[in-house]
Amino acid sequence: MSCLGQKPGRHPAGNELDNIKAQLSQKEKEKRDSQVIIDTLRDTLEERNATVESLQNALDKAEMLCSTLKKQMKYLEQQQDETKQAQEEARRLRNKIKAMERIELLLQSQRPEVEEMIRDMGVGQSAVEQLAVYCISLKKEYENLKEVRKASGELADKLRKDLVLSKNKFQTVCSELDQTKLELKSAQKDLQNADKEITSLRKKLTMLQETLNLTPVANETVNRLVLESPAPVEMLKPKLHRPPFHNAIDLDATFDVNTPPAQPSGSQHGRSKKLCLEKAHSPVQDIHRKMPKVSTQESQLSLGGQRCVGEPDEELARAFPVFIQKAILGQKQPKRTIAESCRSTDVVRTGFDGLGGRTKFIQPTDTAVIHPLPIKPKAKTKQRVRVKTVQPPSQTKLDTFLW
């Protein structure tokens, strides 16, 4: 009954035996494969060992060859050193031979003279002593020549050192000269810029003076107010180029300069502010030479509206600058009419000026019209004192800026 589910005629133990046999055959096959691999590896290892041995032999041979070459190199270096020493010795010997040849040539050239000197000395003890003294003197002379040669060599070395120092100083001076040239170029550029600015200011001032065609008194007042008024903020001092090798330029620095003597003419101060804008050679100097010697009151000319007793002729007026010609010739008729009206019928009176003081004024015949009294020369002295006063740097005036 238990064997009904199995194949007929097949026992279970036989199946297990077949499986074991199959596994055993597979193991034997794997063993044979492993043996083949082991044999192959053994052959490869033997080949590698043979290769290593051959390489080891080659390395030993190469090391032996290197050691041999090192020994040969050392030997060659020794030979090279010996050759250099031999060459140096040969050079010294050659120099000695040349020196000996020169000495021999000198001796040969001096030999006849020496033999003749010995013959002149004669024979005997005295001749030998005299010859010995002569040889000693020659030796001393030779020592002296050696000392002189040594001193000459030292002097030559000293001169060489001085030459090197002089060359260094010369290079330093050349570099300083180059720096000075650069500074000079920058200063020239600054001067050109300042000249351009002065020229533009001159043009502007000329245009302003041509525009202000006022009466003499008003013109003088306007000129005084313009020249003595504080400079605008926009009109700063000229900014000069900073030197590349020094400190900044101090525009407020003062220098001791010899001031030329003052001109004796009384009208020089009245024209100083306007003529300072012209060139150094002003025609006003020629005017003083051409003007006749008359009294000071008669020779005074008004540049801004002051009293003018003697009227200049046209040739004398043309010697002034353009803006002065326009101020004199252009306003000639109004000046004459105002001066004549002030001179002819007016009467000088003294009264209150409306400011708490007393002053002189002109009382005309027509009491409805009152003409102002012309400014006296005393006001010019006050103006001269005011011009000479030094203003603080913080209150820069326009005339000092244009100066």
Automatic annotation (TrEMBL):
Molecular functions (GO terms): ubiquitin protein ligase activity
Coiled-coil intervals, chain numbering: 17-103, 177-211
Cross-referenced InterPro entries: TRAIP_ubiq-protein_ligase
Keyword Metal-binding applies: no
GO cellular component: nucleus; site of DNA damage
Species for this entry: Heterocephalus glaber
Keywords: Coiled coil
Protein name as annotated: E3 ubiquitin-protein ligase TRAIP isoform X3
GO biological process, one term: replication fork processing
